[in-house]
Write a structure and sequence with these properties.
alpha/beta; inorganic pyrophosphatase (n-terminal core); globular; 2 domains; Diaminopimelate Epimerase, Chain A, domain 1; 12 helices; 336 residues
C-alpha cells in the first residue's frame, strides 16, 4: 500500500515547485524502470518550467538510447542543484557514485518493499508494479503534465519492470495507467520491441556462454557471466544481458540466480523466483533487496567462485526451509 497521504504529497509538490534546480537520480546499474522513472519525472518538471537534470554515473544499455531525454543525462549532480530526488532506489547506497557526493535526498519516490525511507520526504507505494506506474499516478497531485515524452519514458519503465505485463504484481491499475500513457502518445509496440525484444550480437553470444554453464538442482538454477566472456564477445554492458530472464523460463524451477563478475573483485547477484519464495529476504543477507520475486545485491571484495559458494549455500538453505514450511500449510493457504 502507498505511504502517500495528502500532507506528504503537498510537501513534495511544494518542494519541487519552489526548487531552483532539481536533480533526479536513480540506482546504479540502471534498469528500464530506473531510467524511465528518472527521465519521465525530469521531463515533466521541465515541461512545468522547472530547471531539472537527470543524473546517472553508470553506463546505460543501448536499448534505451531512443528514450526522450536520454542524451541529456548528466554523469554527476550539478553543483547548482538545490533539490535532490531519488527514484526507484530502495536505499541510499543504491545511488552508487552519485550518493558518495551528496549528504541527503530531499524526495524519495519508489515501489520497493525494501525501501528504507531515507528521504526527507518519502513517497512509497509497494503495491505498484513499477516506480514508473506510481509516478504516472502521482503526476496530477504534483501538478505536473503528462506529455507524450513523459508518457513514453514512464511506459518504458512499466513495460520493462513487468516484463511486458507478465509479472505477478501486474494489476488492473497497472494496465489502466498504461492505457492512459498510450492515450497520451506513448508508442507501446516500439517500446516493447526496443526494450524487451531486440538484442545485440554480443549479448546473444554472451547468452551462449552462460547457457553452457547452467547448473540446476532441487528447484534452483544458476549460471555466471564472466569478465572473460564479456571481453571475448565485446559486450560492454554492466549487467547480465538479461540472462536471468532466460533461466526463469526453465520448467520446474523455483529460483534462478545469475552471478555477474565485475572488475575490482565485485560480483553482482540477481535472483528471480517463479513461485512464492521471497528472494528479497535472501538478497537482504548480502546487503541487497528488491521485490519478493526479483532482487539483487552487489558483493564486494570477493571472487566469482567465492560469491557463488556463499550465495548458493544460503539460497539453497532458505529455499529448503521455505519448501518445508509451505508443505506443512493447508493447501488453500499456500502462496502461489
Amino acid at each position: 500500500m502507498p505511504d502517500t497521504n495528502d500532507q506528504t504529497l503537498a510537501a513534495a509538490r511544494n518542494l519541487l515547485a519552489s526548487a531552483r534546480h532539481v536533480c533526479v537520480m536513480s540506482h546504479h546499474n540502471p534498469d528500464g524502470d530506473a531510467l524511465g522513472s528518472m527521465l519521465g519525472l525530469t521531463l515533466a518538471l521541465q515541461a512545468a518550467g522547472i530547471t531539472a537534470t537527470a543524473a546517472l554515473a553508470d553506463d546505460i544499455a543501448s536499448r534505451f538510447d531512443t528514450l526522450p531525454g536520454r542524451a541529456a543525462i548528466s554523469a554527476s549532480v550539478p553543483p547548482s542543484a538545490d533539490v535532490l530526488v531519488a527514484v526507484d532506489a530502495a536505499d541510499f547506497a543504491r545511488l552508487g557514485k552519485l550518493g558518495a557526493g551528496i549528504s541527503q535526498v530531499h524526495l524519495n519516490i519508489d515501489h520497493h518493499l525494501s525501501n528504507t525511507r531515507y528521504g526527507n520526504i518519502n513517497l512509497i507505494d509497494t503495491s505498484s508494479a513499477a516506480t514508473a506506474q506510481y509516478l504516472a499516478e502521482l503526476l496530477p497531485g504534483l501538478k505536473l503534465e503528462l506529455t507524450t515524452d513523459v508518457a513514453t519514458c514512464l511506459l518504458a519503465g512499466i513495460v520493462t519492470d513487468t516484463l511486458g505485463f507478465r509479472t505477478a504484481n501486474t494489476t488492473p491499475a497497472t494496465l489502466s495507467i498504461s492505457q492512459q500513457l498510450i492515450a497520451a502518445g506513448a508508442p507501446l509496440a516500439d517500446i516493447y520491441d526496443r526494450t524487451l525484444h531486440r538484442r545485440s550480437l554480443a549479448a546473444l553470444r554472451l547468452w551462449g556462454d552462460s547457457i553452457q554453464q547452467i547448473e540446476q538442482r532441487d528447484g534452483l538454477v544458476h549460471t555466471s557471466v564472466t569478465l572473460a566472456s564479456k571481453a571475448t564477445h565485446g559486450y560492454g554492458g554492466t549487467g547480465d544481458g538479461d540472462v536471468v530472464t532466460l533461466l526463469t523460463a526453465l520448467e520446474n524451477i523455483d529460483v534462478a540466480v545469475v552471478f555477474v563478475e565485475h572488475k575490482g573483485r565485485e560480483v553482482k547477484v540477481s535472483w528471480r523466483a517463479n513461485t512464492g519464495f521471497n528472494v528479497a529476504s535472501v538478497a537482504a543477507m548480502f546487503g541487497g533487496g528488491g521485490h519478493a520475486a526479483a532482487s539483487g545485491a552487489n558483493l564486494l571484495d570477493t571472487t566469482l567462485a567465492d560469491a557463488r559458494t556463499l550465495v548458493l549455500a544460503r539460497t539453497s538453505a532458505a529455499l529448503r526451509e521455505w519448501k518445508q514450511a509451505t508443505s506443512q500449510q493447508p493447501a488453500g493457504s499456500r502462496s502461489s
